[in-house]
Amino acid sequence: MSTRMRSVIVLGYGAEPLLEEALTAIAADCGPDDEVVLVDNGIEGRSARQDGWPAVVRVVGHGENTGFAGGCVRGADAATGEVLVFVNSDAILRPGALDALTQALADPSVGIACGCLRLADQPDLVNSVGNPLHFSGISWAGACGEPASEHDTPGDVAVATGGLLAMRREAWDALGGFDELFFAYNEDTDLSLRTWLRGWRVRFVPQAVADHHYEFGRSPLKMYLVERNRLITVLTTYPDRLLRSVLPAVLAMELLLLVQAVLQGWSKQKLRSWWWLARHTRLLRARRRRVQADITASDEDIARLLVSKVEPPMMALPPGMGLVNRGLDAYWRRARRTLVTRGG
Fold first, then answer.
1. Cβ distance 338 to 246 under 8 Å?
2. Phi first, then psi: what are they for 134, rounded to 5°?
3. Strand pairing report for 306-307 and 133-134
């Protein structure tokens, strides 16, 4: 199998009203040695639509929904590029985005390069410039709603946005890519954290821009997966000393989240996430052993990535969250000092 410079991987599922526009924009930004791999996770009307897709597009998959994580893995397995670029099917690339991501990966210390997602209906505003990571494992769209002009400098970020990110094939293979266990949601958080733990950086590249038709919403399945996957990451990916430091606060937050779930009507999904964890302790222990065996970063390196307050800009915080954040901030300041002191 011949090797290409880049493989751009797009996952398709359901109606996908923007798929043709997304594929056309990607194809226009590709070079002669690039390919586009479209994963059919259940695209409605695929047979009637694919004749209009750019010639550079190669379709893999037979309509089985393997989730975002599984679909991306299928695409990466079929791809031949030395660089893998993942683009959401509702994100419209701007010219030069692929080259900007590839250039960032020329630095061997960079494991993941992520772009700047803009809000498609307000293209001067940010959807995500990489995401913060709270020490409890909660992550959110970084700088959502802020002017893009305020985020025009490259820099390291805790978490790459899964809507537009790139990796060298060697880094993807070394890390095992997205973990299919997650199915959907938080797989980008987990992969970013494992990238940092392996000693690579996660880099925000403002020149790589895509206009994202972003909709923030909640569904029963989403809330279950978000909560389950967040706890999988904390329990299996956090290094030993970090996990011991944050666990009391995480457990306290779980009770607060259950109260919030009851008030907002998704308590069944919250309890279901706990029940899944209780039934899969052997799997979690095995995953923890596997992830921890590859850690090269220090506790101080990882602690530096985490934030102390939960402040997602796209949603209203529940009553009393200001007081909770003050408590979380005080807790993390003390825990982080302990980690850094012992690490030194």
1. no
2. -75, 150
3. parallel
Return the residue matching tokens 């099917």.
Answer: 89
| DSSP E strand boundaries for the chain | 4-14, 34-43, 57-60, 81-87, 91-93, 110-119, 122-128, 133-134, 155-156, 164-168, 201-212, 306-307
Compute, in degrees rounded to 10, the torsion defined by CA atoms 290, 291, 296, 298: -130
Contacts of 305 (CB under 8 A, 6+ apart): 133, 158, 193, 196
pLDDT at 317 over 80: no
Q: What are the tens digits of pLDDT across the range 223-266?
A: 999 999 999 999 999 999 999 999 999 999 999 999 999 999 99
Amino acid found at 143: A
Residue 44 CA to residue 46 CA, distance in Å, equals 6
CA distance 127 to 32: 30
pTM: 0.95
Cα separation values, 191 from 113, 179, 185, 196, 239, Å:
12, 8, 11, 9, 14
Residue 195 C-alpha from the chain's centroid: 12
Whether residue 147 contacts residue 125, with contact meaning beta carbons closer than 8 Å, is answered with yes
Q: What is the separation of C-alpha 200 from the centre of its chain, rounded to a whole number of angstroms?
A: 16
- List the domains of the chain with CATH numbers: 4-212 (3.90.550.10), 222-343 (no CATH)
The pLDDT tens digits for 162-216 are 999 999 999 999 999 999 999 999 999 999 999 999 999 999 999 999 999 988 6
Q: Is 321 helix (H, G, I), strand (E, B) or coil?
A: helix
Of 4-8, 137-141, 331-335, the one with minimum mean pLDDT is 4-8
Pairing label, strands 34-43, 81-87: unpaired
